[in-house]
Amino acid sequence: MSCGGKVLLVILSMYTSISSCDNLYKSMTLVWGYPQIINGKAEKIVSSSWDECVLKCYQEDSCTLVHKSSSGCDLYRFKTVVSARNPSHPYREDLIAFKTLLPTNTCPINPFINSSIYTYQDASLITYNTTITYSVDSNNDTIINFNYTTLKCPTGSKLFIRGIIPVCLSVQYFTNESTYKYCANLTRASALCKKSGGTLTGPANGAELQYFTNVSLTATKIAPYPDTSIRIWIDGDSVYVARQWIMEDPTHNGDAAYPYGSDAPNSIWPGSGLYLYFFPTSLVDDYLTTSDFLTMNGGLCWRGAACRLDMKIV
């Protein structure tokens, strides 16, 4: 399978069923080339064919790149390779295969156009993030650069991947110091996220929606309100025009993944904000941003805020 130019093919591409990720495909991109700058010792893979070596890298999260040379196969793990060179034609000697996540399971025409990323977590929930960028030098060789960060989500939050952006999501709750105990308005919800080092956000996909739902219903047990009364503020404020939402967080693609009810949103004036509620299923509706507690329907409490928190470098 040819992908044109200096790229041979993208192999071993399959759906990566990581619950915290968008639908991305873990892939190995195979090109002519060799490691250029290394920052550690490679592992020599013995008694193994090249295909088996590539498969080993594909299966092991910590593997970044494998290199086939006349002496065999070398495996480079997280942080051990800084850059690799993909020489221009007619170079046809060594091969490398590096791991990435792609938005489709088909071979891209030119995988060197956009940056890409590969992220994984270990048992301690430390996140290892490899960002791959590309440049072309004066010889028309492609330089593949590997940039590494080691990150951890704050306690009480969970890692998700939005496109190529790792984010930490959490539901933060109002304390009993509110005017109505445990309930507060949209302005205080935004401030609550910022106080925790983040921003108000909303679900970008079904997995995030399920997370916000599960966490909200579990943590609300400390408040004196039933599950049916709980509302969680999410990103979206009709500041100027009714039902035209101003978003704080640019990473969740607006309200594209918001599960609106059949007649929602239905505000006719600006000044309404979006919120999530949970019965009989998780749905999104809008109400006045000044709302904190309503006595109607047995009492409705805007209990907290969906937040995107900053990851911490470790």
Record the SSE blueprint.
Blueprint: E1 7-15, E2 25-32, E3 34-38, E4 43-45, H1 50-59, E5 63-69, E6 72-77, E7 81-86, E8 95-102, E9 116-121, E10 126-136, E11 142-152, E12 158-162, E13 165-173, H2 186-195, E14 198-200, H3 206-219, E15 230-237, E16 272-277, E17 283-288, E18 293-294, E19 300-309, E20 312-313
Parallel strand pairs: 15-19
Antiparallel strand pairs: 1-2, 2-8, 3-7, 4-6, 5-6, 5-8, 7-11, 9-10, 10-11, 11-20, 12-13, 13-19, 14-19, 15-16, 16-17, 18-19
* Second-tier CATH architecture of the largest domain: Roll
Per DSSP E runs of 2 or more residues, the count of β-strands stands at 20
Rg over alpha carbons: 24 Å
Which structural class do the helices and strands define? mainly beta
Ranges where pLDDT stays below 50 over 5 or more residues in a row are 1-5, 13-21
CATH topology title of the largest domain: Mannose-Binding Protein A, Chain A
- Element order, helices and strands? EEEEHEEEEEEEEEHEHEEEEEE
- Estimate the helix proportion, in percent: 10-25%
CATH first level of the largest domain: which class? Alpha Beta
> Span from first to last CA?
41 Å
Strand content: 35-45%
Describe the structure.
By secondary structure, the protein is mostly beta strands. It has two domains: 7-152, no CATH class; 158-313, Mannose-Binding Protein A, subunit A (Mannose-Binding Protein A, Chain A, Roll). The protein has helices at residues 50-59, 186-195, 206-219, and strands at residues 7-15, 25-32, 34-38, 43-45, 63-69, 72-77, 81-86, 95-102, 116-121, 126-136, 142-152, 158-162, 165-173, 198-200, 230-237, 272-277, 283-288, 293-294, 300-309, 312-313. The strands form three sheets. Strands 12, 13, 14, 15, 16, 17, 18 and 19 form an eight-stranded mixed β-sheet that branches. It has a six-stranded antiparallel β-sheet with strand order 1-2-8-5-6-4, with helices on one face. The protein is elongated, with a radius of gyration of 24 Å. The model is unreliable at 1-5 and 13-21 (pLDDT under 50). Residues 6-143 form the PAN-3 domain. Pfam families: PAN_3.
